[in-house]
From TrEMBL:
Organism: Novosphingobium taihuense
Function: Involved in the gluconeogenesis. Catalyzes stereospecifically the conversion of dihydroxyacetone phosphate (DHAP) to D-glyceraldehyde-3-phosphate (G3P).
Pathway per the UniProt entry: Carbohydrate metabolism; erythritol degradation; Carbohydrate biosynthesis; gluconeogenesis; Carbohydrate degradation; glycolysis; D-glyceraldehyde 3-phosphate from glycerone phosphate: step 1/1
Binding partners and assembly: Homodimer.
PANTHER family: TRIOSEPHOSPHATE ISOMERASE (PTHR21139:SF42)
The keyword Secreted is annotated on this UniProt entry: no
Matching Pfam families: TIM
Protein name: Triosephosphate isomerase
Keyword Cytoplasm attached: yes
Family per record: Belongs to the triosephosphate isomerase family.
Name of the coding gene: tpiA
Active site positions: H93, E169
Swiss-Prot/TrEMBL keywords: Cytoplasm, Gluconeogenesis, Glycolysis, Isomerase
GO-annotated biological processes: gluconeogenesis; glyceraldehyde-3-phosphate biosynthetic process; glycerol catabolic process; glycolytic process
Length: 256
């Protein structure tokens, strides 16, 4: 694998202070896999506490507003994420795109706001089942990459610094137990890489492309060994150390 594997847990709208014990256990074990970059994205309410509870792993947000501050009730900005201890943020998750009507232009603005605040980013893309069945998966995902990735000098610098990742998450594989076929994942990651090279030139090779969608202990090794897969964005199986650590172990060479 040309990149340092990146295994990220997305807790979505799950978690309470009681779950900090899981984060601590994940963090302790993550320290045994220095070859793997491990991170968790808890809900906003837990970012600060989780940051203080862990030391080896990254801590991120699941979304940010396009503006740095202002009259946007209920929203959280990228500088606020930094202030509470986050080092990255996920933008453009399909649940945000669907639940909050976020299109590519908004996702791109969020990505640029996050970079301006100094955060790393994971930009999510992925097709629906209808789009895949219609043979449009690569076209849809390529269009999302073109429309959602940040542009400009700050983006080029962040890409070169390895602070930018893309997560390919087929919508039909999220939370369904249905994983994409490995050849389809390889093909899609290659299509995404081609767009990244077109957008950023040679530096586009530095963007890590993660797979997400029903990743678990049983399928992680095969997915992570696939050419072009630089890591995983994990939902349900990131909620406990017991479920998440085998995925970290599958990515790393440390002791189990
Ligand atoms: O959406 C996901 C991660 O962002 C994937 O969720 P699951 O791993 O629960 O399918």
């Amino acid at each position: 694998m040309p990149h340092r594997p990146y295994i990220v847990g997305n807790w979505k709208m799950n978690g309470s202070r009681a779950m900090l014990a899981e984060a601590r256990a994940i963090d302790r074990a993550a320290g045994r896999y220095p070859d793997v970059q491990v991170a968790l994205a808890p809900p906003f309410t837990l970012i600060g506490a989780l940051r203080e509870a862990v030391s080896a792993m990254g801590v991120g947000g699941q979304d940010c507003h396009v503006a740095a501050k202002g009259a946007h009730t209920g929203d959280v900005s990228a500088p606020m994420l930094v202030d509470t201890g986050a080092d990255f943020v996920i933008v453009g998750h399909s649940e945000r795109r669907k639940d909050h009507g976020e299109g590519d232009a908004v996702v791109k603005a969020k990505a640029e706001a996050a970079l301006a605040a100094g955060l790393g980013i994971i930009v999510c893309v992925g097709e629906t089942l209808d789009e895949r069945d219609a043979g449009k998966a690569e076209a849809v995902v390529s269009g999302q990459v073109d429309g959602s990735m940040p542009e400009g000098e700050a983006a080029n610098e962040a890409v070169a610094a390895g602070k930018v990742a893309v997560a390919y998450e087929p919508v039909w594989a999220i939370g369904t137990g249905r994983v994409a076929e490995v050849p389809d994942v390889i093909a899609m990651h290659a299509a995404i890489r081609a767009r990244l090279l077109a957008l950023y030139g040679d530096a586009g090779a530095k963007v890590r492309i993660l797979y997400g969608g029903s990743v678990n202990a049983g399928n992680a090794a095969e997915l992570l060994a696939a050419p072009g897969v630089s890591g995983a964005l994990v939902g349900g199986a990131s909620l406990t150390a017991e479920a998440f650590l085998p995925i970290v172990a599958a990515a790393g060479s440390g002791e189990a």
